Amino acid sequence: MKTWHELRGFPLAVRLLLINQLGVNIGFYLLIPYLAVHLSKDLGMSAAVVGIVLGVRNLSQQGLFLIGGSASDRLGARGVIIAGCALRTVGFGLFALGDGLAVLLAASVLSGLAGALFNPAVRAYLAQRAGSRQAEAFALFNVFATTGALVGPLLGSALLLVDFRIAALTAAALFALLTVAQALVLPPVEVPPAEGGVLADWREVLGNRAFLAFALAMVGMFTLQNQLYLLLPGGAQRATGWDGAAGLVFLVGTLANLALQMRLTRALKERGARTRWIAAGLGLMGLAFVPPMAVAGLEAPPGSAGAAVLRALPVLAGALLLYLGVMIAQPFVMELIPAFGRTGLTGTYFGVFYVVSGIAAAAGNTVVGWAMDTGDRMRMPWLPWACCLAFGLLSAAGVAWLHRRRALPERTTAEPEPERELERASEPEPSAPDEETATDPDKTPANGANLLTDNPELYEARFPDADRLAGRWAEDCLRRHRAGRRVLDLGCGTGRDAAQLHRAGRRVVGADLSTAMLAYARTHHPGPEYLRADLRGFDLPGAPFDAVVCLDSALLYCHTDTELDGFLASCRRALLPGGLLVAEMRNGAFFLGRTELLDDPAVHGFTWQGTAYTSTTTLSVDRTAQLLRRTRRWSADDGSPPHEQDSAWRLLFPQELRRALTAHGFQVLELHDGPGPRTEPAWQEGTAPGAFADGDRLHLVARLTPTD
């Protein structure tokens, strides 16, 4: 029930792809495990020819994952998924209809290429469409995949009682049905035009050393998963003397997966960094080989069913622990992979991951095979089990080491995201960092005593952002325009939005002038690097960046053209050629003829730590200075005296801002009044940028034009 409840919470397209994996694994496992027997016994082929056919299928899939990933990024995951299922339909159909070597090789190539196409594409689609529930989506993916891997061989065994061709045609029909369902249900998605070539994409991914290190560390997960089909079934058979005992290994795993996967993922997602759970899962996978090691080499005595059952228990316990380790680690591994880079390369990252980890796992399996042979020859039956224990512990240690070095994009429990604060040392008087409503705060300069700047906890209580709209909107802009990973968040305040971008896989530097806010950000929102800087003129270590983000009207504390030029010149120095500037602010044009925000004082109140606070705010337009001035008077019921603060924002007009950006070498890609994180209605994933610039907020995306 838990699984179906979780499934219903996803969009129809995601639900289809999750159930699709059940069909994919049923179709695959009802045919492929029996292909070698068909080729050798039914068709009379030699072992060498059988090896060639099977090798071509494996090479076509494992060797071409990178092609499938790039196709997903460049052409769109939907079309690649449909094409992959269609190719597998044709490939499995050829296995049923063809007996000649040429036809069988073509069937092998097509069925392998199909897997190379839709495997990375499906994972990329889930990563991009599941939003903040990626871990749950990949957990469900694991449930359906495991169930299909159990049902497929059982169905294949039954169909083989009739004929191999019936099994092959059944598998082909199943993939044909999946192809039609995907064509009908998966919505077309416009793919932004790619910048650069495919080789440049590959170089970018392969140049990500942290990602490659993580993929290599996964050698333990893939090597040990393969033992579900090699070492553990063999151990169960030797312990019981019954060939059917291997099926118990898969039955135990499937039942555990159905009962526990979603509960585990949901519980662990709420408890700390995902990378720690990946390391813990890998460690548990290694420890799973300790119980079977205890009975390694013991043969079941003839006729002793009770003793056989007792000897099978350690093997089944090991299988259960191995499945539990996979359940813990795998959803978070899949969730983490796209966080290493930009959204436009999600498929490529999955493709490279499976190529690198597949090669590493092949080497790992070779070591396990050597240990099995050596153990048999030297009467050391415990050796392959000990080898697997070492693989698991070494992989766990590798991930833990990468986590300690902060080399991995951290995914932690999402927290409410309030707004941020930015100081200006030149402000004549302090001011509070909020706006006229709790849903529309702006950053404010401060100099001296400032109620909210000096109390970041109070600031967050005053301006919660439970849906994390500001950070999510900024990340959406970065992804749509294919920004790289290194991001500078100017005016980071309490660090909430910087942390959100960090959780999305960015390498973030947060900059602010408030030392109190920076101290709070380092403590409460670790991950980004936090530095003190003035946005009107800065040169920061860590430059150049792929993008600069400046939210919540921080840019409007550039009160003069000189200060605005200083900001844009600093951004130009800080950005790589082609880098993005993403900003969100008040719209000066809104105040042309509109007075609804100016007519009456706005009164707001809230309670924090037992004290009731009330603010009375008055706005006025200084037309000579082109500033929106604010006076706010704070009072509290704790007996403290009232506190008055003054602040101001530059009233920038859309065409004025566009001209300034152009003068500094920026090309304006988007300039509109919404939807955005502070608009009504608010921005949501998938919402297209607006075409007007008349509302209260102004949203900007600009690209630094590369110079010759």
From TrEMBL:
Keywords from the named record: Cell membrane, Membrane, Transmembrane, Transmembrane helix, Transport
Main subcellular location of this protein, as a coarse class: membrane
Pfam families: Methyltransf_25 (PF13649), MFS_1 (PF07690)
Domain of life: Bacteria
Biased composition (Basic and acidic residues): 410-427
Membrane-spanning residues: 12-37, 103-126, 138-160, 166-189, 210-232, 244-265, 277-295, 315-337, 349-370, 382-402
Organism, scientific name: Streptomyces kronopolitis
Protein name: Major facilitator superfamily (MFS) profile domain-containing protein
Membrane disposition: Multi-pass membrane protein
Keyword Transport: yes
Keyword ATP-binding annotated: no
Sequence ranges assigned to domain Major facilitator superfamily (MFS) profile in this UniProt record: 13-413
InterPro entries reported in the protein's UniProt record: Methyltransf_25, MFS, MFS_dom, MFS_trans_sf, MFS_Transporters, SAM-dependent_MTases_sf
Gene3D superfamilies, sorted: CAC2371-like domains, MFS general substrate transporter like domains, Vaccinia Virus protein VP39
Phylogenetic lineage: Bacteria, Bacillati, Actinomycetota, Actinomycetes, Kitasatosporales
Region span, Disordered: 410-454
Compartment(s): Cell membrane
